[in-house]
Amino acid sequence: MFNKMCVGQQNSILFFRQMAKLINRSSFVALPVFVALIALLIAFGFPFKSYLVSLRQQRLFTAEELSLYNGTDVNLPILLAILGSVFDVTKGKSHYGIGGGYNHFAGRDASRAFVSGNFTGDGLTDSLRGLSSSEVKSIIEWREFYRRSYKFVGKLVGRYYDIQGNPTKYLKGVEAKAARGAQLLEKQKKEEAKQPSCNSRWSQGEDGEVWCDDGFPRLVQRPQEIALTGKMSKRCACFTEDQLSQQGLEVYEGCDYLSKTCRV
């Protein structure tokens, strides 16, 4: 019985939305029908309050509509989108309003710029094409930051959400890539924890140095890094003397084979 009621309410909501669209096109024709529909839904106990709350939470924006909320109109809230999720950042007006350091994010989805640092022209785009798992993971984390810090007000129709507000394959792919990046990062941390990292010290205008309290400093490749960032990198780890014959260990240039401290 409950399932039948839910289906009935869903059908009513869909019909309600269609009538609202019809009124926008021809209010003189549709208004009497719309009023009659309201009376009928009230008679059958239609949950208007919960529907209106749901409607606010599911508001769908086009790119053109979202661009109006860029802080230039003082009568409108300031909105931004990240991965298609739209947030009201008006309380951060000093940052997101006109003249603010983050105003380039207002009124658009510039997801890529959150990790690229390119805040002009083509850099202000929602395309994540070519970004690494680590970078995509960072953008997901930025989305979570906005969910915690600002009010979610709807979704942007386009790359990440379709016209019904459903997640697209692109969004699902982005989230899967970020999850894979998180798994790789965790795996890298566990593997590197098995081999102690070097101590390091850096000072402006002088060379830095790395050293080991127990063992000898060596450069070693980080195999997970290619999948995470698309680049191979190395780290300094400490190895005992009986481990120094392992393949892949690199002595710092100018450093003695059994020195515990190396200039870098």
From TrEMBL:
This is Uncharacterized protein. It comes from Manihot esculenta (Cassava).
